[in-house]
Specification:
Helices cover about 45% and strands about 5% of the residues. The protein has a single domain, classed as Rossmann fold, CATH 3.40.50.300. By secondary structure, it is mainly α. The longest helix is centred in the C-terminal third of the chain and has 22 residues. Strands 1-7-2 form a three-stranded parallel beta sheet. A two-stranded antiparallel sheet has the order 3-4. It comes from Paralvinella palmiformis. Pfam families: Sulfotransfer_1 (PF00685). InterPro entries: CS_Sulfotransferase, P-loop_NTPase, Sulfotransferase_dom. This is Sulfotransferase domain-containing protein.
């Protein structure tokens, strides 16, 4: 935040009397543990894509609905839209200084900034409180669970992980018999720092069909570029070019950026643990019907997982 203040002071010293403010040009709303940090880093190497001060502002999910409790017991008020835009002030200043002049003398700012918070697409624990809305891949679940286990400093054992997965899937299936899938999913996203609850949220977060369907109820499909993480990791350069084309940005990637993108190696700090085949089968059988619905929803067979 101090950097933002310093930028504003420089504005004042230049006698601008104003500051450029930028709303995100795009949102990277990939699911948790699907490579969003890797893609975020790759995009930051593109000259026209300005890296924001923070990757995950969390404005569109939990922080907008409740006060943020600090470690000392105090609380911060709910952030406003102006607070949200403040997180892009440093990027906005870079965009202001980055100009291109055309042959006819027109000056424009080609830079853009994005919101790259993966939880935006699925983490809506307060969704049912919004008046208008009253009425995987299986190894990703383990990766997500390991990530929180690493932060909590405990080891995930394969057999314990399997029993936890089995218990939560049974709980969801029981809920599905009593309520709608949508109701079970969103009520199951109650925020908690308990590792077991994070596993439940990991499994729920793998129901891609449920969340993407919600977004397509509001926004036209043409405004989305859907990409599988497997395809991205198989060819990062081609994936980045496809994204730039979708965003109508310059697709010419400098050689230095190409090398950095091709040599990316984002390491997951979570502990490594074996994955029981019985757990894999359990998750595949549970997720398969939802993946089939996703294929129908997107009308694209590439979303079939085998």
């Amino acid at each position: 935040m101090q950097k933002i203040i310093d930028k504003r002071r420089r504005h004042n010293s230049e006698n601008l009397g104003w500051r450029m403010r930028c709303f995100p040009y795009f949102f990277l709303i990939g699911f948790t543990k699907c490579g969003t940090t890797d893609l975020f880093t790759a995009l930051s190497y593109i000259p026209d894509v300005i890296r924001p001060l923070t990757k995950e502002p969390r404005f569109w999910q939990k922080f907008r609905f409740t006060e943020h409790i600090k470690k000392d017991g105090g609380s911060l008020p709910r952030p406003t839209l102006s607070d949200y835009l403040d997180t892009f002030d440093e990027a906005a200043e870079q965009i202001r200084q980055y100009t291109i002049k055309t042959e006819d003398g027109f000056v424009y700012h080609p830079g853009v900034v994005g919101d790259l918070d993966p939880k935006t697409i699925w983490c809506y624990p307060n969704w049912i409180s919004i008046k208008a809305n009253k009425n995987t891949y299986e190894p990703r679940v383990l990766s997500h669970y390991q990530f929180f286990a690493h932060k909590k400093k405990f080891t995930v054992q394969p057999d314990e992980f399997h029993h936890s997965v089995e218990r939560f899937i049974l709980g969801l299936q029981t809920c599905f018999k009593k309520k709608s899938i949508r109701s079970c999913v969103y009520q199951g996203l109650v925020y908690s720092k308990e590792a077991t609850t994070n596993l439940k949220r990991s499994i729920i977060g793998s129901l891609y069909y449920v969340f993407i369907k919600e977004w397509l109820r509001v926004f036209p499909k043409e405004q989305f570029l859907f990409m599988k993480s497997e395809d991205y990791f198989n060819n990062r350069t081609a994936a980045v070019v496809e994204i730039l084309d979708f965003l109508k940005l310059n697709k010419s990637i400098p050689d230095v950026a190409l090398i950095r993108i091709q040599n990316l190696n984002i390491v997951n700090p979570s502990a490594k643990v074996g994955f029981l085949e019985i757990t894999r089968t359990l998750l595949q059988n549970f997720l398969q019907p939802f993946n089939e619905k996703l294929v129908t929803l997107l009308r694209n067979d590439q979303w079939v997982w085998h």
